[in-house]
Amino acid sequence: MGTGTEANVNREFWKEAVVYQIYPRSFMDSDGDGVGDLRGIILKLDYLKELGVDVIWLSPVYKSPNDDNGYDISDYEDIMDEFGTMSDWEELLKGLHERGIKLMMDLVVNHTSDEHPWFIESKNNPDGEYGDYYVWRDAAPDGGLPNNWESFFSGPVWEYSEERGQYYLHLFSKKQPDLNWENEKVRHAVYKMMKFWLDKGVDGFRMDVINLISKVDGLPSNGTAPIADGSMYYVDGPRIHEFLQEMNAEVLSKYDIITVGEMPGVTVEEAKKYTAEERKELQMIFQFEHMRLDGGPGGKWDIVPWKLPQLKAVMHKWQIGLAEKGWNSLYLNNHDQPRMVSRFGNDGEYRVQSAKLLATLLHTLKGTPYVYQGEELGMTNVKFPMIDEYKDIESLNMYNERVTHGGADPGTVMAAIQTRGRDNARTPVQWDDSEHAGFTTGKPWIGVNPNYKTINAARQLGDPESVFHYYKELIALRKKHPILTYGDYELLLPDHETIYAYTRTLGDETWLTVLNFSTEPSVFEWPGNLGSREATLVIGNYGESDADRNEWRPYEARVYKLN
Ligand code: GLC
């Protein structure tokens, strides 16, 4: 691996940027209906500017019956009523651009809503223009389902349509039928829609489960069990690279934009293909391996403790895997994951320190950092005691299947939802200590985390020691120092159980990050070649003055420049 120098790195805006994800339903409500909206985001533009982020990724704002909070789209070229109008959206884009912030839209094209006109036509008129837009199959010869794949949201992936007398495929909810990407007309309809938004001035796309769009011919069952994981037949499927190259040639290459593909189950080998610049597919992808470290053999709801050496190993594999070709995205949470401080840090006594420590990790590894709304405040998981306070279809379907129909112990299932459920990330952003955390003057669509009196933006904006200010500092640091973007990465102490340490090197400059993932102090033994160099603290979460050279305090994070 050659050592990068400032002269030979290929500088790109999207590599140097920090992206901030907005989940509009929970960001800010401007009109008191309890649901966040576009004008709510407009009210907070100066907050985003102050934080210093370069790009907003906006989760879906398109027309939707909201079976899966906007990830079920019934009109790709219009705005959801609860979120506002197209002119609100235009004003938002203008407000962002005036502040030098770009806007990335969510592109959800593995599936539509079952209320999309394409689907309605498809089920009512099999021989018509849209007849082949979705994945339709007859029942199996024995009268059973076409195959045994299990949906991400529990139950089979097949739903029967009375109108058409056939089953349609839905990897997600039954209100999210999968589009048939084998049909060229579908692909071109998607490209046309993408151009619609690009011509309106959007700066990029985050592509929802984009590595699931190509399914293996014949949709074979996995074994003979009545229901089984079918992902080997649609993750990184046979035509996926062809489809993405076509999309690139038809659309992406014609605009100067940012692209990131969400890719559950993707491997490093495939990721290299998706992101190698000369292959002309995507710039970055979201991989999921580190999100699986606390899942047991039973999957995401089978929760096991994660271990630091494993986290390091996974991140290392990706850092090294995409070092020469491709590019990493860096995230520890989003709207589908629990809050990172509750999962990988400590949301009790060391909440502030551990939120800053995790932020240090995200901003000093190699890749583009993604900050999820509220992360910059150190927001935590919520523990709603009752199932009816949860809103997410994934959690509700799972509860229904296991408790209502399966006789499982409700306490165990509730504990899994409280730890792992997606609603942990979807409680409203905590703006201040007024009622409903300043998110709405009405009744919020989902409960506010009761800790908003102490954890909120108003309080942190005025406190230079806050998590918010630390994020601001890290983001500014990345802008100033190309080493954080382009420097080569090298891991130290892979097996250490509490210390996570690595260097970044660009030309003759080396930076060292050392993080203590523990509620106890940890000793960091400086490796000989580094220990002899003079170290200047660049940023740390305990302040500078009283740092011991070898002992890291609970959740202490320090980044040094070595001279
Ligand atoms: C992605 C989204 C998630 C959604 C699913 C189906 O994983 O991030 O929120 O439920 O795709 O669209």
TrEMBL record:
Q: Which reaction does it catalyse?
A: Hydrolysis of (1->6)-alpha-D-glucosidic linkages in some oligosaccharides produced from starch and glycogen by alpha-amylase, and in isomaltose
Keyword Signal included in the entry's annotation:
no
- Describe the location of the Glycosyl hydrolase family 13 catalytic domain by residue ranges: 21-426
Which Gene Ontology terms of cellular component type are present? cytoplasm
Q: Name one GO biological process term.
A: oligosaccharide catabolic process
Q: Recall the GO molecular function terms of this protein's record.
A: alpha-amylase activity; oligo-1,6-glucosidase activity
Q: Name one Pfam family in it.
A: Malt_amylase_C
* Keyword Cytoplasm in annotation: yes
Record-listed E.C. numbers: 3.2.1.10
- Location(s) in or outside the cell: Cytoplasm
Q: What is its main location?
A: cytoplasm
Sorted alphabetically, which keywords does the UniProt record give? Cytoplasm, Glycosidase, Hydrolase
Broad EC category:
hydrolase
Q: Which PANTHER family match?
A: ALPHA-AMYLASE FAMILY MEMBER, OLIGO-1,6-GLUCOSIDASE 1
Homology family:
Belongs to the glycosyl hydrolase 13 family.
Q: What is the name listed in the Swiss-Prot or TrEMBL entry for this protein?
A: oligo-1,6-glucosidase
In its UniProt entry, the species of origin is given as Saccharibacillus sacchari DSM 19268
